[in-house]
Fold:
Amino acid sequence: MGITLKDTSDAQSLSISVQSACPQYPPLKALNDEQEKFDKDISDEINSEAFFEKSLKKLQGAVQIPTESFDNMGKVGNDSRWDIFKDFHKYLEDTFPRVYSELEFTPINTHGILLEWKGKNELLKPYLFMGHQDVVPVPAVTESRWKYPPYSAHYDGRFIWGRGASDCKNVVIGVLEAFETLLEKDYKPERTLLAGFGFDEEISGYQGAQFIAEYLEKTRGRDSIDLILDEGGLGIKEMDGAVFALPGLGEKGYFDVRISVETAGGHSSVPPDHTGIGILSQIISTIEATPYEPELSPINPYFTTLQCSAEYSPAINPRLRKTIQASLTSKKAAKTVADYLSTKDIFQRYLMQTSQATDLVLGGVKINALPEKVYAVVNHRIAVESRVADIRSNLEMLIVNKILSKFSFSLDAWGSISGNTSTSSVGKIVLEDFSKPLEPSPVSPSDSEAYKIFTGTIKQVMGEGIIVAPSLMTGNTDTKFYWGLSRNIYRFSPVRDEGKANGHTVDERIGMREHVEGVRLYAQLILNGDRS
Structure:
């Protein structure tokens, strides 16, 4: 596409303060000499060679336990594949003795972990640190492609290699290391601290995080947690000459649609012009030929990411900078930015656009028999400006306009019947939910006290020159179950871009330097949260 960046603004629209579009809060610091000394003790401990070696062994041991979760897992207690989590729990208990002897541990649905470190001040709402114990499976056919065996947790002097090293055993171990270190220093928190680790995040979290969230709502109530920090975000990376921390303040929605085509059967030696499989393929082709448009608006956290880049990235294209800044007051400029960036980078495109991917197809039972029912499942990740109802409406409209105009079929779209409903109908198309849909998440605030403490801690630990820019996640985390517990939900794995690679695929790895830096962040956030 030949999209160019044109001047879509005027002098008046550019007079707005760009700084206000990317607020930066100062790095935090100790409030007195006693706090400063304790902060230094903790920092020195975590930065020590001895801690590094212990941390290496702890993370290696965690990665070596293959806590794989599979899409077809049965309920806990009915599927022996869950049993590996017992081994993982035993490992955690042995590795973090102070945590498990001094904190209150509540098992949730057998394998879920909820830890509570009671604070002295009950008026302060708790902080909740999240992560997940499970990892995506390693297909047997890919094992030979790994540089080191996927569950060896080999350390090459820079990285730990193995499944789960960066998604997200590092987060679980990092949080527990921060807790253990503070316990060893006899720290007594003002604010209650919680750690909640699900065990099936990679298969949507319905037996793990969902149960933990329900337990917390039941025992503590809605809006009872001040800050929730989970894995995720876009990490810490360089963008056009500046270093950004990119926590996820929101997530796209999720919607799977099953499209079924029912036709008359018969012998394949006398077929119709189009079999059910052929018609289904035309439907899929129509969907793929009609993608959603990229959209960029202020309700999308990625809009703020771009504003931050325009303000702080010295090497950004000057015309792009100007157009991004103009988008603060000009929808035309915002559309220009969205169209331009969507042609440059597929990842950026889907931060602004609903995606649609046909991932499952089933049809036909015999080579000489016409298929009587075939179906496909289309996965959607819904842009923050859209809703599930928009996807349903769009698919129904496509089928009516592009398919029913060619085939005398009836259409059942979520119970709404149209098309040829007479007895002369030669077939039927059905649109229905394949799984429970999820609307785009609420967007967490970027001006709350919790956010200021969180981002001030990032700058304090990871560098005062880092620009913290709210961003968006295209996927979903376990936080989808926690929306009722806090408005301050932040998704951020504290790992620099160069310190991780290949999550979910061959040669996944995590840099030990970056892992230890993450432990410092968790520990310092606990300390800073007590001083608010």
Notes: The chain is about 35% helix and 20% strand.
